Amino acid sequence: MTSPDAPTDTTAEPVGLDRAEAALVEHYPRLVRLGFLVLPGTLGQQRRVLTAHAIAQRALPRGSSERDTPPALPAQRAGTDAGYAYLRLQVLRAALDAARARRRLPRPPWALPQVLGLRLLPSAGGPQDVALDQRLAELAPAGRAAYALRRVDGLDEQATRRLLAAAGVPDEECTAAVEDAAGLAASVEPADPCFLQARPTDLLRRRRLAKGALFGGAALALLVAGGLTLLPEGWGPDGAAAPSYSRNEAAESALDPQALRRIPADTWQRSARLDFSVWPARGGAVDDTGLLRRALAVWARPGEDVEVTATPGTQTGPAPGPAQLLYAGETGGTSVVLLHDGLRLVRYAERVGADGGHVVLDFARVDGADLVSSAAVVVGRGDGNVRYLLAPWITEVGTVDLLDPSGTTEELAVDEDGVTGALRSASGGSGQQPGQCASFSALAVTPRGVAEPYLMADLGELAPAVLTGGAPGEPHNWTGSADARAQWARMACQLPLVGGAGVRSLNAWHFAEQSLPDGGGTADWVCLRADTWRGTGSRSLAFFMPPAERAAEPASVTASAEDSASCGERQPEVLSGVLWHSPADDWHLVAAASEGVTGIVADGAVSGEGTGRTLTLPAEEGARAVLTARLPSGDELRMLGS
């Protein structure tokens, strides 16, 4: 995709939904930071964060791009992105409107816009961040907007004036705003007060609570009439658990620490299958009845102080019976209990020695795990680091920096319980944003009897995703391939784009190679497919990789498709295109398709056709076109995501 650091187009021409969505995916952090800086500090950080996210997500145009406008071809990184320009203007207008409305009439908390499904925690700022917030609070909304455009997108005074005017700021306010922003930039060190940590909330639990509110009166009448009894006294302190709500034999056994299933340490060596079901119970607190009791009680009925997260499609209800204990112990100043109920992994975490307070309960669906996908589980996360609990069949473990294709595997310490040392998290939770990272550490694990290690990437979930390469239906371990390592180095910083979806595996497929005009060299086309544990919700991204000066130069995301069979075993065919700026200062439409395509046709502002799997046509900057390809069967293949 493009870089937004380009001349500003304030005409806000209509943009197709596909093009705007692609721009939103790539530049979402920028748009949120822009809104965050324009909004007044009097809102408070939490409401300010929620409002900024809501504004960014509501910036998409309405309607269907297929019916209203043809999907756009994104320009290369050095060009102008009309999709981003459109979204930026919408965010700027909405943030200014919200800031002015706040000054006129404060809104009650229930009327504030919300970002459903996210729990947003702004990171603590240093002295520079505090100073910047104080200075921004002294400016008018237009002044904050001018400063945000300078710092977020690097616009000059002329471009800032044009964009403010397009957002509805009067000329006299534009002049004052630009002057205020220039003064602030000269007196305060550049800082970014909008590094955010995002965690998914428990959607299913909130839905149940909403339904419970509607039928609360009837449920209370039934409870009184039926004379239901609470669980008997004597279970011991339940920590952050809410009051008991039911009683039956299965629920009671699920709450009993003594009933937890503990698998013997050597069972996996005799088992017909290797997955989480044969992991032994490990850790220094496997016999800590108090800790285990609290974990089981909170799982059964989490209270208001419990932070519950779950991957999409994962139920958060209590266990149907006694669960399997995988780990109980201390790591990184936190007491952790890991449990498995045959379908889900459950992680309970509390501060070491705490009798109450903040408690975390994480759920992840892991049914159908195999030798590799059950090789590691996140046991601890904090301060930008992550620790894993390894499967007993892992014989070697290390770390690999995906951004260094020639790098070697570095050793990673493992204690007697199978817990690794701290590894720098690559999930983006420590302020790392898609497309912006200095390193991306992957976990390298070698199962018993396997010659080469497999790589696993932390995407912010309990189970890391397995990295593979190859054509759909034929994924394989790629750690020994220099070409594959080079391609992953250019995609690694974009992996947070597919995080938070319950990703099980990431497969990179090099589907085409294309000679570029004007001596531009040879470009690679790669389709990255993220498959989930639940089967649905997969995501495919097309990457364009022209020659680059740096090995880790980020590739351009040219298209994306969600919950699609594209680039998968059932539908491996893929087609994508991009506007490319040649060394001769000319623009070209370049497109490529997977094997089997007999020709590609372009319609729209750029039109033409060609035989074979690649197409190159002269184009104008910002041109729009629709691509289709012909298959040997006579069927038509459309662009990925269209």
Please explain how this structure is put together:
By secondary structure, this protein is α+β, with helices and mostly antiparallel strands. It is 26% helix and 26% strand. The strands form six sheets. Strands 11-10-13-14-15-16-17-18-19 form a nine-stranded mixed sheet, covered by helices on one side. A five-stranded mixed sheet has the order 3-7-6-5-4, with helices on one face. It has a four-stranded antiparallel sheet with strand order 23-22-25-26, with no helix packed on it. A hairpin with a 4-residue loop joins strand 16 and strand 17. Helix 1 packs across helix 6. The longest helix is centred in the N-terminal third of the chain and has 23 residues.
Task: Please give a quick description of this structure.
It is built from 14 helices and 26 strands. By secondary structure, the chain is an alpha+beta fold. α2 packs across α4, α6 packs across α8 and α7 (157-166) crosses α8 (171-187).
Notable traits:
single chain; 642 residues; alpha+beta; nine-stranded mixed β-sheet; 14 helices
- Quaternary class: single chain
**If you compute it from the alpha carbons, what radius of gyration comes out, rounded to the nearest whole angstrom?**
27 Å
How are the strands of the biggest sheet laid out side by side? 11-10-13-14-15-16-17-18-19
Biggest sheet statistics: 9 strands, mixed
